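ugh ok fine here u go
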Amino acid sequence: MEYAGVVPMDAPDPRIESEARVRALTYPVFELRPQRSLSRIPGAGFMEATQSAVVAESSVSFNYTLWRHPDDHSDPRNEIELDPATRRALEEEPPWGRPAWLIEQARMLKYPMLWEAVRTSWQASPDPERHSLAQQLVDHTNHILRNRFREELGLRDGPSEDDGGWEAKTSAVRDASFAVDGQDRPAVQIDTDPFVYAVGFRVDENVVCTAVVPRDSLPLIDLALGAYD
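structure:
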């Protein structure tokens, strides 16, 4: 559900519908294990591709709030640096008001986010190359780099004609192990990028799960996954 312009005070919280959509998926979905330094942001990001009006590919991604000082979420040291105009936009109430769920969403934008950190992807008929575990890990990694590290990579706003030298490649993928529901699973990782660390595992022949997180967050979190509950 999307809103444009003024959001009415009685508008339903779209995160409720999003969570119901995740629960209705027919394939297993994974998320970071509960921990003090992370709060999963309610709702999810979805992608679907269809062929002949039938869903051929689907993925779901989760975002997380990172608490650098988890003992006290109100500690101002948890907040990211914001320019005055952005802070006013998040904190000041418009004359027409906002529903409580939208106020909460705006408040959480003052804290660092692990954006689309965990992605579970399903393909009805996986292509051996395009949907290999290594390729899907690379795709997720480059998605995060392109959207969250543009300044660090020197990418201009909007479409660019850069040479792609910043992109992760399958040649960087190495074997690894990964904790899933308390057990080590065979996995692959990208541990050579200066900005992010990436790891993924194959759930079954149709489903892959990948996780990509900023390197500066790694000391603060337990990078382990569990089935969505």
